[in-house]
Amino acid sequence: MESIDLLVLRTAHDWLTSGHRTLLATVVRTWGSSPRPVGSMMALRGDGRVVGSVSGGCIEDDLIHRYTTAYEGPGLPDGLPRLVRYGIDADEAHRFGLPCGGTLEIVLEFAPCADSLGQLLQHLDNGRLVRRSLELASGQVALHTTLVPEQFAFDGQRMLNTLGPGYRMLLIGAGALAEYLATMARFNGFKVSVCDPRPEYMEAWSLDGVEKLVGMPDDIVRAFAPDVRTCIIALSHDPKLDDLALLEALHSPAFYIGAIGSRRNSQSRRERLIEHFGETQASLKRLHGPIGIYIGSKTPAEIAVSVMAEVLAQKNAVVLPKELSVVQAKQAREQLMQVV
Fold first, then answer.
1. Nearest CA-CA partner of 58 in 98, 27, 103
2. Which candidate, 88, 183, 234, 293, has a CA 20 to 30 Å from the CA of 110?
3. Cα separation, 312 vs 229, whole angstroms
4. Largest Cα–Cα distance of the chain, in whole Å?
């Protein structure tokens, strides 16, 4: 399952190359409560077909009415990009289904260049980060590959949007927990791969749509070439498999690195990595373990929920309260039980 950004761009490119008039809309500013963050995109075809979203649905309906032939409208116009605003007052916010006080601005590109979108998609498919800039006054688009993700920016005249390859998740260990976690990751737009040198585990894997990689996990991690949109999670419970894979991961730019295990096992792992492999407390700060947020999970499905929540928080640069960490929450619970 592709990320929504890639899906929007690929669909817009397909529509354009098939001869359809296509509008590309991007949220560039929000105030108050807004249903979609800046950078959110949608593509609108001249006949009213839509992929992606810029709101909860009502703004999409308004754009369809204004700019397509779906309701006997005039169809998509020609011309330069246009900036539009929704939700300026309470009445309009209510009309367009925005939360109270919600306001957003959207840039509409009425004639995006199919060749430029094709070049952008080629870069993304090859694993590159790309900064796409749009000048509203001229409609000119420029693409620049980059190594560092940048925040979305809009100054009223130029829009800068850094787009990257889809997020990837590499799972070490092909057990039941891995299948649940892979399912959730795919629904969140991650491309998922699983590695396990144990044939009995790989042969029992039943989830379609996941790439199965054969080999020792440390070799697989190295060949996987983790980037800033990669997360690596060790789930095998076998130090011979997990530890070496984690060592490779820790020396990569992966945004999330974690390993399953109890508090005692996680502490033992840290001690092994320091004593035998030269790691330090500082170098192990990136290693999550025990993984997940504390929700009292017991079953593989519930544990997968807690792990996926932590991965998404890291992806979205959200700092979770210490009370949600497994270690802190269990320590607090134990202290409470002692008092009782």
1. 98
2. 88
3. 11
4. 72
Give residue-wise pLDDT tens across range 307-324.
Answer: 999 999 999 888 888 878
Q: How far is 310 from 325, CA to CA, in rounded Å?
A: 9
Helix (H, G, I), strand (E, B) or coil at 288: strand
C-beta of residue 55 within 8 angstroms of C-beta of residue 98: yes
| Spatial distance between the Cα atoms of 209 and 290, rounded to a whole number of angstroms | 27
The residue type found at 241 is L
**Distance from CA of residue 45 to its chain's centroid?**
25
Token pair of 283 as six digits = 């170098």
Distance from C-alpha of 301 to C-alpha of 96, rounded to nearest angstrom: 37
Q: Which element (helix H / strand E) includes 65? A: helix 58-67
Could you tell me the strand order of the sheet in which 141-146 lies? Answer: 141-146, 129-135, 158-163, 153-154
Strands (E) located in the chain: 22-31, 41-45, 50-52, 82-86, 103-109, 129-135, 141-146, 153-154, 158-163, 168-172, 191-195, 211-213, 230-234, 256-259, 287-288
Angstrom distance (rounded) from CA 190 to CA 186: 5
Give the confidence band of 193 by pLDDT, cuts at 50, 70, 90. very high
Residue 246 one-letter amino acid: L
| pLDDT tens figures, 86-131 | 876 666 656 666 655 578 899 999 989 999 999 999 998 887 889 9
User: Residue 132's closest CA among 112, 102, 175, 161?
Assistant: 161
Residue 268, both tokens:
């033992």
Instruction: Enumerate domains of the chain plus CATH numbers.
Output: 4-163 (no CATH), 168-333 (3.40.50.720)
Q: What is the mean pLDDT of residues 251-276?
A: 93
What is the pLDDT at residue 101? 57
- Strands 153-154 and 158-163, by their bridges, are antiparallel
| Angle CA 237–242–246, to nearest 5 | 140
Question: What is the residue whose two structure tokens read 């309701």?
Answer: 71
